[in-house]
What does this fold into?
Amino acid sequence: MTSYTELGLVNTVALFKKAVSGGFALPAYNFNNMEQLQAIIQACVETKSPVILQVSSGARKYANQNLLKNMAKGAVEYAHELGCDIPIVLHLDHGDSFELCKDCVETGFSSVMIDGSHFPYEENVALTKKVCEFAHSRKDYVSVEGELGVLAGVEDDVSSEKSHYTQPEEVEDFVKKTGVDSLAISIGTSHGRAKFKPEQCTRDPNGILIPPPLRFDILEEIEKKIPGFPIVLHGASSVPIEYVKIIEQFGGKLPDSVGIPEEQLRMAAKSAVCKINIDSDGRLAMTAMIRKTFAEKPDEFDPRKYFGPARDELKKMYAEKNKNVLGSAEQA
Ligand code: G3H
Ligand code: 13P
Ligand code: ZN
It folds into this structure.
C-alpha cells in the first residue's frame, strides 16, 4: 500500500478552494504514455499551473496502473527538475466500482471519481457515499468526485446512449448524503470529438458546425443550491478545427467533428466550475502531428521522430489552454 503523500502528490481540496474563489479552473488532462505526461508537465511548469493527471480505466488497461502511478511520482520529480514544484494530483477518471476506487486509493492516487451517474439516484448516492467513507478515512485524505446527470457521447470506456442534464433540485441532497468533494454535472458537454449531431448544430458561412450553447442556466441554478461547491465539467475538449483539418489533409477521416467553444469554457472556468476535463483535444493534436510527419517524411521510422513533434504540439496546446481558457496559469 502506498499513500500519495509518499509520491509527492496532493489531493484536490485546497486546490479547488483556491480555484473557486479565484475564478479559474484546474486542468484535468488524461495521460496514457510518457510523451503525454511530459507534455502536460512541461506545459504546466512553464505556465506555473497546478494540474490534475487523469487515469481512465482504458489507461489502466493500456499502460498498467502501477506503471502510471510511478510515472506520476516521476512527474513530481520532473517538475522539480524543470524548476517549479507545481501541485500535482493523480486522479482516477470515471471509476465505475467501489473496488476500483479502493484499489486506486491504496495504490497511491490522491483523488478518485466514482461515476454512478448511470444508476438510479439512490444507488448512485449509496455507491458514492461508500467510496467517500473509505477514501476520506485514510490517514491522508483522498478526495472524491461524484457525478449527477448523464453526458452524451461514446468513447472506449465511457459511453452513454441517453444523456440527461443534471437536475438542480437533486444536487444539495446528493452532496449532503454522499460527502463528495466535487460534483461533475451535465449541462451539454459530451465525451469525444463529435459532441453533437450535425442536426443539433448550425453552420457558419464556411460550413463549419456551430454547436448549441451549454446550459449556463442550469449551472446557475446548481450554483444557487450549493454555493461555492466545486463543480466539474467532463467532455470539455474544444476539438480545434486546425487539428481536424491536418488529420484529414493527411489521410484521416473525422466527419462531423465539433467541440465546446473556448469562449464558453472561459465563462465556465470563472464560475464554480473548478475542474475541466480534456482528453480528446490531446488525441487530436498528437494524431495531427504524427500523420503530418508520416506524410512528409515517409522514410522516417524512429518513433522519437514522430512522437517528438506530437509531444511538442501537445505541450503548446496545453500551455495555451492554461493561459487563455482555464485561467490556471500563475496559480501554482
Ligand atoms: O472520459 C473519458 C476519457 O476521455 C478517457 O477515455 O477510457 O478511452 O481512456 P478512455
Ligand atoms: P473530452 O472527450 O471532451 O476530452 O472529455 C474528456 C473527459 O471528460 C475525461 O473524463
Ligand atoms: Zn469524462
In short: The mean pLDDT is 96.
